[in-house]
Structure formats: C-alpha cells, structure tokens
Amino acid sequence: MVIKTEFDIQIPNYKIAAVEYGDPEGFPVLALHGWLDNAASFFGLAQNIKGIRLIAIDLIGHGRSDHRPDAMPYYIWDNVTDLHAVLDALSLKKVSLIGHSMGAGIAMFFAGAFPEKVARLMLIEGVAPLYYEEKLLPKLLATAVVKRSKCASRMLRPYATFEDAIQARMNGRWPVSREAAEALLERGLSKTQRGYIWSNDPKLMMPSLVRFSSSQISSFVNSVKAEAIVVRGTKGLADSIINPWLDDFCNLEVMDMEGGHHLHLEPKPAALLAERINQWA
C-alpha cells in the first residue's frame, strides 16, 4: 500500500490542496492535472511509484483548493505564478513535473520560464493550451465577451445522488472507468441542499478573452531545457495540443500508448508510465 498524505499549501492569497505519495525523502515530482479534474487524476500512477516523492495538487479553482476572486478570470499563465509559489512554500529548488492536458501546458510553460528549476518533464496528452491566431484576436475577443456575459447567470446543475454524478463522469466527453470516476469525484464533488455539485469554480467553463498565439507558445517550448517525455494516446488529442510543438523541443522522447485522453487513469498505462517515472529516482 502506497502511503498517502493530504495537506494544504499556503501561497500568497490562496490555499492549494495537495496529496503526497511515496518516499518523503525521494526526488520531488509535482503532478498537475487537467481542466476540471483534480489531484486524484494521478491515483493510478501513485500505486506504482518507487523512490519518488509524488506531490499532486489541486490547481486553483479545482478540487479542494481556493477559487480565484469573482471578478478574476482563469488564465493558464496565472498557474505558472501559483506553481512558483508552491515550490517556494515547499522549499524545493528543483523538481520534475508531470502534467496531463491543461496541466501539461502549465508544466511546459513553467519549464520554459524557469528552466533551472525543472529536471524532467512528462507531458501526458498535452504540450500547450489552445491558442488564438493573432489576426483573429479582435473577433475572438468579441465572441468571448458575449459568451462570458451569457455564462455569468448560469448555475451548476446538481445531481440528485452521488451515483448520478459518477455515471455522468464515466460517460462524459472523455469517458473514464468507475474507479477513476470515484477517485475524481471524491475530491471534486460537494453535497449541498440542492444536491451534489462540482466543487470546481463555474468560471472555469467560461471562454478565454485572450490566449497565447502559436508563435508565443513556440518560444516557451524552445526555452525548455529539461528532458521531456510526451505521451500520446492513440485515441487522444495529439493533432491539436501536442503535434504542432514537437519540433520545438531540444530534448524530447515521444511515447505512443493505447488509450484516450485520460489514459493515465487506466491501470496498464498508469503502471507503464510509473516505470518511467521511477527511473528519475
């Protein structure tokens, strides 16, 4: 049985919830989940790690971490600031990073901005976020403003039972197993008088007013000095958030694995990925 410890990390203005697995004296590896997921996204990897101190966090607005202020949008670069503060709070001078989907984009941006702080990267089903083409920025900004005004008045739809929520997560856009759904919902669901609702900040569903451009993303990937492993699922999102940036890495290995966008939540891929992570010890 892998030891699991839950704790909070206090950074300026926010509390970040974390789960730590493995060897407390092992090399630190921080794990960053995808959009609308939480730290439980790495429960499968955690069952197979050896000699590693694996710290999975709930990103701001997700799981049991604080939300951003009502008037503050969610932008991916703000997570880079949060991650820098987490390293400071934990007195970590250098780490390795694992990221899934949105978390992979955050890990890549951090490694590009602070190459001296990152030893290795494992980017699962992601390298960079969605981007806006510069010539379309005025139109995309206008569209996002209108959509955000409509979203502001919407309320989260509650689920009558925990089981209803599990079924919804199992059969969502990116289906997961029952075990994975239960792990994610244990951290990501809150019981209210109206029923069970996601604990994620509803503002996460709003469209971004602005995004990086493709050339800006390339500049960050070019700045990554860490040894990088990019993991692609055979039924994942490689064409949109992975493949455009592969040639920009200076030290890259690509792993193609059977599975979809959440392949790391399945037992076999999780065990194989953990074998690679154990080599970092």
Task: Explain what you see.
With 281 residues, the protein is of the alpha/beta class. It has a single domain (4-134, 210-278), classed as Alpha/Beta hydrolase fold, catalytic domain (Rossmann fold), CATH 3.40.50. The chain has 9 helices and 10 strands. The chain has helices spanning 43-46, 76-89, 102-113, 137-151, 162-170, 178-188, 214-223, 238-241, 267-278, and strands spanning 4-11, 14-22, 27-32, 52-57, 95-100, 118-124, 189-192, 195-198, 227-235, 252-260. The strands form 2 sheets. An 8-stranded mixed β-sheet has the order 1-2-4-3-5-6-9-10, with helices on both faces. It has a two-stranded antiparallel sheet with strand order 7-8. Helix 2 (76-89) crosses helix 3 and helix 3 crosses helix 7. The longest helix is centred in the middle third of the chain and has 15 residues, at 137-151. The model has no long low-confidence stretch (mean pLDDT 94).
